[in-house]
Amino acid sequence: MNSAGTVVAETNMLSEFRYHQRLLRWLGVMLFIVSAWTLSTLIPSYLALAPAQTLSGQSLAWSLSQSITADLDDDRLQWAAERPGPHWASRALSFPAEAEFVRVEFCLNNDVPPETVAILLASVRDGRLDFNRQYRLNSFYSGARGECFKEPIPRRAGDGPAIFQIQLINGPASISLSSLDVTPLEENPVWRLTRMGMLTLGIVLVVLVLKDYVGARPRILVFAGLMTVLGILFGCCVSVSLKADIYELLTGGRSIDARYSMQALLQTQFPLGGFSLFTFMHAVLFCAATFFLGLARRYAWMDMLLLAPATETLQLFVPGRGPGTRDMLVDWFGVAVAVFLVFLLRRSQRVRALLED
To answer: What's residue 9's pLDDT?
Structure first.
């Protein structure tokens, strides 16, 4: 083998060794991810503060918008609209002041096509009906007959009365439920200690993996990349309430003056959506971190790919938050875009010269 071939072979072996070394560095984080999912299955996150409120068989308690009909009894709740919507059914609820979450449970008696029904909950706080929390059931965009849903919706301790609303978004549409219960919850003290310890451990493990970037060159790029990673870690670890406050600060938020009568609030359609801005930021932050660190170290793309499931797992330990496959795919999309950009820049001799200085 000639000298040029020997150099290429040695370079390839060195690169392969570095990638294997990176994977070994992430071994502790991978074990953390497995342990986190195991603990989240074994330890209940919430405890019931009071018995569940059954919303069946109370037809007079519901306020209906125009052109929607209801058939409510002890075993079934059904709403239907014969013309294009939106239409909605609302009712007022009260919970203990210390309730931090409300668990909503129901089963479907009919098939529900995507984006035709939304189930929402909003609470009165500081004189306003607040839509800045995570109030839409994430799991319920569509469903099949017989499918059951259960999800805790976060509130702030001290929130006032809540309004529960079922929206028929596109008509004609209908929804039939075999049960509909809401239960006030508080955080399990055992889970609180567990999640605080695991959240700290997860962040420490990620920092240890990435600490070898400190001192790498070009320093300005590495500094920008590590600051972006800190932004990612901060974003995945903030509470729902703080996330909502940030959203309100950036967008103006969404709320309704609650000094109106309760009947007027019940006749008000809740806005849909929210937090889409943060999904966009997922891609931007991962793209930026991969771009800056990728110009300093060729294996940065691997670190950022593995950082995505690690940060999603950390959200298991943030009250009201949770991991999402879609968010992780968005993260990886941002990484892919950055890898392409770094590849193009590294082909420039001028850029390579600057990076080697």
So the answer is: 44
> How would residue 10 be classed by pLDDT, with cut points 50, 70 and 90?
very low
Of 353, 120, 109, which is closest to residue 256 (Cα–Cα)? 120
The whole-angstrom separation of Cα 117 and Cα 174 is: 8
Contacts of 262 (CB under 8 A, 6+ apart): 92, 161
∠ CA 32-37-43, rounded to 5°: 115
Task: Tell me the CA end-to-end span of the chain in Å, nearest whole number.
Answer: 32
Distances (CA, A) of 267 to 63, 125, 133, 144, 167: 7, 19, 20, 29, 12
**Is 90 exceeded by the pLDDT of residue 146?**
no
- Other Cβ atoms less than 10 A from the Cβ of 174: the count is 19
* pLDDT, tens only, 212-238: 898 888 889 999 999 999 999 998 888
Alpha carbons 273 and 310: distance in angstroms, whole number: 26
Q: Are 115 and 169 in contact (CB under 8 A)?
A: yes
- Summarize pLDDT for 160-177 with one digit per residue, the tens: 888 888 888 876 788 888
- The yes-or-no verdict on residue 32 having pLDDT over 90 is yes
CA distance readout (Å), 52 to 95, 107, 124, 149 = 10, 15, 20, 15
pLDDT over 80 at 94, yes or no: yes
Element (H, E) at 181: strand 173-187
Cα–Cα distance for residue pair 54/17, rounded to 1 Å: 60
Domains annotated on the chain, with CATH: 15-43+189-356 (no CATH), 48-187 (2.60.120.260)
